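Class prep. Write one:
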Amino acid sequence: MNSLFQWEIIGEYQPLFVEGMWMTIKVALICVITGTCWGLALGVGRLAQARHGFWRYFLRYMVQWPVRIYVSFVRGTPLFVQILLIHFALMPLLINPSDGLILSGDIAREVRSQYGAFTSAVLAITLNSGAYVSEIFRAGLQSIDRGQSEASRSLGMSYMKTLRKVVLPQAFRRMLPPLGNNAIAIVKDSSLASAIGLAELAYAARTVSGAYARYWEPYLTISLIYWGITLLLSALVRHLETRYGKGDAR
């Protein structure tokens, strides 16, 4: 009778798990940065407005409404489906050896074979994360007293300068907890990319379980790794809250 745990399997495949861990961290780090930037752009677009004239209607119907529809669609559909849609439908349209809209020929074939899964995963998670981050930014920006923006504008500051110098620094402190939770969600959601062949942690566990028909060891191992990463992220967010949250406590 086989023992319940056979940890020598993990030792045999240790390089695969280490490689998968670094791939998970790399994807998560890139997606946290790009998703936050994309979410900020969407959040600002969601709040963009003008009081009168052409720009009032342009911003409402050409910026606000498209952003609302995009956010609603992304938040209302599973990330797993979005990853499949981007990898098997969008990427072949953009990067294709025969007639890619962005890349074609041998370079497209090379990119698809070497970086196809990675590119699809980063793009899908970034687009998904941006939709959620946009709501975080929208709520954070709206939580700042409107009088501060009006006072800054009355002093001659532009809208973007007011946003950068006055509103965002204050809103950032209030947005830290949900942004931290979003970063943790990205780490865990990256496991979905194993379905398109990205060699991250879940892919490593599936490879080992398929080779040995053992499931406790590989999946418990990656669970502990994910847990360790999320604990480190949680500690980092708490540190940032303590450091930058002092302004709200005054």
User: Anything to note?
Assistant: The two ends are 65 Å apart (CA to CA). The CA atoms of residues 20 and 200 lie 4 Å apart. The chain is about 80% helix and 0% strand. The mean pLDDT is 88.
